[in-house]
Design brief:
Order of helices and strands: EEEHEEHEHHHEHEHEEHHHEEH
Low-confidence stretches: 7-12, 108-113
Radius of gyration: 21 Å
Largest sheet: 8 strands, mixed
Oligomer: single chain
Number of domains: 2
Distance between the termini: 32 Å
Number of strands: 12
Number of helices: 11
Amino acid sequence: MTAPITDARSASGTATEPLLSVEGIDVVLGRGWRANHVLSDVNLKIWPGEIVGLVGETGSGKTTLARTVVGLVRPRKGRVTFHGTQISGLRGAASRRERRSGHVQLVFLTVAQLVGEGLKIRGGVDPAEIERRAAGALAKVGLDATLLGRTPGQISGGQRQRVSIARALAVDPELLFCDEPVSALDASNRNYILRLLGDLRDNLGLPIVIISHDLSSLAGIADRVVVLYRGRIVEDGPVARVFTAPRHPYTALLMASAPSVQHDRPLSVHQLRRTAADPAPPANGGCVFAARCPFAIDACAVQPALEPVPEAGADRWSAACHRHDQWQALARERAAVAAPR
């Protein structure tokens, strides 16, 4: 079953400044020979009122990027600014103050604590007000306040996920990160959660970043999609245009490998994967995807910058590929060569 691709419906077109700006972020986890370069020169902007899908295979750095934004991971270099104020360099009391503010909230799949815990951590809110706001947060996600007296084990999986979202909403955040919000849910609950996130954006003007492996989920809700591969953003653009005509071969490979997000999938996995017959990639490939790319050339020994796509027009659409306007035709030629005579 295919999912319809939405047109961008966000308010970002009228905003003059992004709500969140991530600039040149590098993250290295571990030390010495165990050091792992998780994020490299990541640049990302989130505009008021939009839903952004953050996609990529396991290990691409999606969750690490979210944790860096909310201050749980310290970047080696680069900066994160929120409402024009740098928050990545905060230390000590200033860092604790920013976390307690609840401006940016991260939603994980499991729920282990009550909805009102964020308000308790923030402080200055009496128990009666915490209960009132917790009940209000539950109402925003379609749950009755009677669930406040139950444990997570006494409610369904779909209800637990909604409680997790309500816990984030209780502190009135200005930006929400949802990490795989529908990965463990059945089709009915999955669709409900996606509609709920769309309603939160529409009713509250709340920008949301959805981290997901499921491209079909994003096709029906997101305004933009950001594609990560090995810690680098390789494509960033309007979901309708990226899913219809991706400009990076890794984006196309993700689409071909996943359940279809459109009625006519133009390229297959076999057209986008390297074979023994393909020329060897550059020995010291600078492009993070060069070793897997059948279209790599000598120029790919240099990591391409994330640059605007020429036909993007007024849309914010960029890709990091030396052959962003050539590889599609080459992929179709591969199909013609492989076709039976």
